Amino acid sequence: MRLSRAFLLLVCLQAAHSTEEFSFGLYQLLPYFRPFGDDAAEAFLIGNALVVGFGFWCYYFRVKPGAASAPVWATGWAVIEIANGILHPTWSLMAGQYIPGTVTAPLLLAAGIYLISRIASESNASRPASLIP
């Protein structure tokens, strides 16, 4: 799978992850959404839509066209999603209960690791062969 497809997979999984978080009310557990009061759900939805929208922007305008900065954008996303994939299950284990986002988090972890491997693979493939064996 090419880097661009691996990146697109990660963004689509983030969309599924955001859907799980919203559907099961993660915004109710996060203190920074409390100032929004009754609009906490709406604020959370807008925030996640912006994140996913930014992911698609990165895909269409940086990663898919193969911009020189594509590996940097993809690495940034991979690192964030790997952290997301680790933090949700950890939080659930520490809380002793399901935390919204925990079901899809391992998919983000796996996709993030896979994306890092694609970045490394494509980076190695584009390097000139060494003259010294």
State the total count of DSSP E strands: 0
Integer-rounded radius of gyration:
17 Å
Overall structural domain count: 1
Helix content: 55-70%
Question: What structural class do you assign from the helix and strand content?
Answer: mainly alpha
Can you tell me the residue ranges where pLDDT is under 50 for at least 5 consecutive residues?
Answer: none
Mean pLDDT comes to 91
Morphology call: globular
**Beta-strand residue percentage:** under 5%
Q: Largest sheet, if any?
A: none
Instruction: Give the helix tally.
Output: 4
Order of helices and strands: HHHH
Distance between the termini: 29 Å
How would you describe this protein?
With 133 residues, the chain is mostly helical. It has one domain (3-123). It is 70% helix and 0% strand. The chain has helices at residues 3-23, 40-63, 70-95, 105-126. It is globular. The chain starts with a helix and ends in a 7-residue tail after the last helix. The mean pLDDT is 91.
Any key phrases for this structure?
133 residues, mainly alpha, 70% helix
